[in-house]
């Protein structure tokens, strides 16, 4: 009985050893395969690196072209002047009819209104010149709210006078900015009065 138990124990140990050796052999085979695969990968590294650099260069070129297009398309700015002296009744929009610059097409020389093509921060400036012995007041409007006011002239002066106001404001796409008379006013033209605006930063 003891001999049988001993034989069983020896047989179990042999099975355990054989199993361990088989696992070691399999691990060695896997390691060899892994090493061969790594060697192949190492051999192809220069080719893969070259492909990666070409891909990055192409990506940089495409991104640069896209940024250039976006920058060009984002340029917005206008300058317009008043060519003739006119009377403007109360709350009448001033139409600066001579356009010197209108990048982005936001300013309408028929209505005197600038409409924002993009959301962003804008700078606007209005300069007006009064007729002799008259005072005039204008306000710069964004939609239905004033964002700046300007006064020029003196009813007792024998000379015309200029006044100006500049404003920085945030606008959404489609918002409108224009200048209008606060009271009945005679504005001197001859390109002495002007309206300008420019997109500072696009959001």
From TrEMBL:
Keyword entries, A-Z: Secreted, Signal
SMART domains: C1Q (SM00110)
Signal peptide annotation: 1-22
Organism: Potamilus streckersoni
Protein name, as recorded: C1q domain-containing protein
Main localization, broad class: secreted
Keyword Repeat attached: no
Gene3D superfamilies per the UniProt record, alphabetical: 2.60.120.40
Domain C1q: start-end pairs: 71-203
Cited InterPro entries: C1q_dom (IPR001073), Cerebellin_Synaptic_Org (IPR050822), Tumour_necrosis_fac-like_dom (IPR008983)
PROSITE patterns: C1Q
PANTHER family: CEREBELLIN 18 (PTHR22923:SF89), CEREBELLIN-RELATED (PTHR22923)
């Amino acid at each position: 009985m003891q001999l049988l138990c001993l034989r069983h124990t020896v047989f179990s140990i042999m099975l355990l050893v054989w199993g361990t050796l088989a696992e070691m052999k399999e691990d060695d085979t896997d390691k060899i395969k892994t090493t061969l695969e790594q060697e192949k990968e190492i051999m192809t590294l220069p080719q893969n690196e070259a492909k990666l650099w070409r891909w990055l260069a192409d990506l940089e070129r495409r991104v640069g072209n896209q940024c250039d297009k976006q920058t060009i398309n984002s340029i917005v700015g206008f300058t317009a002047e008043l060519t003739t002296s006119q009377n403007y009744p109360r709350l009448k929009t001033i139409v600066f009819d001579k356009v010197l610059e209108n990048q982005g097409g936001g300013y309408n020389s028929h209505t005197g209104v600038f409409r924002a093509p993009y959301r962003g921060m804008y700078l606007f400036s209005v300069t007006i010149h009064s007729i002799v012995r008259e005072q005039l007041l204008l306000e710069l409007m964004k939609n239905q709210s004033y964002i700046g006011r300007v006064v020029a002239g003196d009813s007792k002066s024998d000379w015309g006078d200029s006044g100006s106001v500049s404003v920085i404001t945030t606008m959404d796409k489609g918002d409108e900015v224009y200048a209008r008379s606060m009271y009945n006013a005679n504005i001197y033209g001859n390109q002495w009065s002007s309206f300008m605006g420019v997109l500072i930063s696009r959001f």
